[in-house]
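Data availability (excerpt). The following record was deposited with the supplementary files.
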Amino acid sequence: MSVSTATRRTYRGGTTCRREDSADERAARPRTRHALRPPGAPAELLAQLRADRRAAQWVPVFEREWAAALEESRRTFSLAGLYEVVQVWQARVVSAPAVDEFLASGRDETGVVDLEEIRSRRR
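Predicted structure:
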């Protein structure tokens, strides 16, 4: 049986009675974490991009991709494109030091697969 958060059934001596929670009881209940803070991943990611040495190249591209995904989400009522933009850019930020190290080492990069190609295969 589903029970709303404001209504509970109380069992007394084999019988049930329905009682409403008071406003104080509802206020005393802990809220879930996601209800307390707005999603900040895009803003946090943009701050990371602006702090990176590649900011001149990365920030405009991220903002362009974010704007396109935002427009798509308005049209389709889906957040999937927004999540994908954040995930791809988070992966770029995390992998950037390894890429720098690889390029500085002079290793051969033939046969390397593009991240976009890998992501498109998963869909």
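Summary of structural features: The radius of gyration is 24 Å.
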